[in-house]
What we know:
Endonuclease, Chain A; 27 strands; 8-stranded mixed sheet; 3 domains
Amino acid sequence: MALNKKIINREISWLSFNERVLQEAIDPNVPLVERFRFLGIFSNNLDEFFKVRVATIKRMIDVEDSTGLKNKERPKKILNSIQQKVIHLQKKFEQTYQDLIAELAEQDVHIIREDNLNEEQSIYVRNFFQDEVLSVITPVMLHNVKEFPHLRDKSIYLAIKLTSSDKEIDPEYAIIEIPSEEIGRFVVLPSAGTKHYIILLDNVIRFCLDDIFGIFQYDQFEAYTIKVTRDAELDIDNDLTKSFLEIIDASVTDRKSGQPVRFVYDSSMPVDLLDYLKDKMGLDEEDNLIPGGRYHNFKDYMNFPNLGGQDMFYSPTPPLSHPLIQPHKSILEVIRNKDVLLHFPYQKFDHYINLLREAAIDPDVKSVSITLYRVARNSRVINALISAAMNGKKVTVIIELQARFDEKSNIYWARMLEESGARVLFGLPGLKVHSKLCLITRREGKKIAKFATVGTGNFHEGTAAVYGDLTLMSHDPRITTEVEKVFNFFEATYKTFKYKHLLVSPLYMRNRFYNLIDTEIKNAKAGKKAYILLKINSLVDKDIIKKLYQANAAGVKIKAIIRGMCSLTAGVPGLSENIEVISIVDKFLEHGRIFVFCNGGDEKYYISSADWMPRNLDHRIEVACPIYDKGIQQEIRDILEIQLRDNVKARIINEPQDNRYRIPSGTRKVQSQVELYKYYQKK
Length: 683
């Protein structure tokens, strides 16, 4: 069987992942307000998909290719498949939204439209509009402007048709940006007894259109929501007179005017208004014109207000303390005696913050080096690093300026760190720094002791509350010495290093993974036990997939937990019958990367910042770290076994991409995230 024939297109696979997110909004076992929030996550995911992946495909189509049209046909075919799938998901989304509104009403929480307001509510909305909204909106009369206004990527707009009962007065069109960032999307109206009411800001504006356009002779107003998604790729200026920070800063500013890659509109919009908008914006069918419902920008529903009881939320799972880390005790001392694995969000990210704070004020700590890809808006990680610099430590921060959608934030923090006295480096040309590393050096007598942390996720207290990630804290010289080599590489990029323990991309990681898989193939052929356990976000690298198919043919048993894209086709006789893939989508975002290889009975364990994608293996600086501590190896094995038993939130990833839930084989239901929390409570 041709291996290429069984590699699923990554874009279609990603849409299948986002459908799993939508399944959470549909699932009646998920608390009601959380289901609205999953609608928001689905919508936000789709926005980023169009900004990045669809934009890339459109660029491929637009590029002039000397070999002719033939090479362009496949991107067009993919784009058509995407549009069909998105329209299907959009219909499913709209139905889910209507169902949730009805369920919310059963709980005495009502989302009402502008045409359902009673007299008291009408007065409240009029006053709210006059006091809070009118001064921040800017209506644009479209027949009055020479150029159609630039529509911002993250905003939604009301496209308005104004008509008069006097047939002598010609219709007019207008545009109003909905100021949800300034005011918020949801306006809570006065309650009536046990009944609670919410109106969307869109509908507040709709209700008051006569206040906005009262100076004209129009007496009929129709308003339809529209939204534009733009290409998010940075066009990097190669001006050598500018610093890299200045170049990225300018590129982020230019991104705001990127080419449209999707136009979503209310499907009930009259044809004349839609045609007018398409003509003025220069849109055609290749620009992904997506008919939708009355409302867009459902990402706002990630912050949907809860006016009902606690049963509309997930049960609280406050992060737990690590059993080895005690208040008012040195964390460096704990790490000196034993490696520590932190598992967020089940355990406290504060432990990591406190490690940095301890390093900042410990008089014997000489230096702190760290890689940063994304940080929180009010980052306590950054505050601890600034504190370290102000306390005279040598602080080196490798900050990635091209972390998509976080460029502005990272530029801001880079400048703050520089002002505090930290040394800030911006990685390497053409290579994003995606590894999650920290190195602390401390003088102990006549020696320098090294302490390292290696993680699977960002040093970000916000995402650590909802992303499932692992961070190893170690004093093991096999790890700390090689983490130091990585930081030395950042300082002297012309110098290469050899790594015996760490798997470092782009130079060594791919081949080391090949060797680990080849060992399993060799052992399977020799009749020995051979298996691979994987937990990653995405598997789309074709060469790795082919290698896994070869392992399957040799009899290697492979079990994988892959949250997002998976281009491998599992469970196909003669190709992948020994490969099982599941995806878990639940309360927390599964983000950790774990690799376990049987290795003839002497198991090898790794955690990593890297997925199995070409960008991670070939175009980024990533690190996979071995786990040598036997207790931590057992903990990782426990994590994987709990998740592989999931029969509540696990979907089977297969060739049809139909996201079937795994059916419980016994009577006991296993929801792995619930079980993991219990696991850490016992520890």
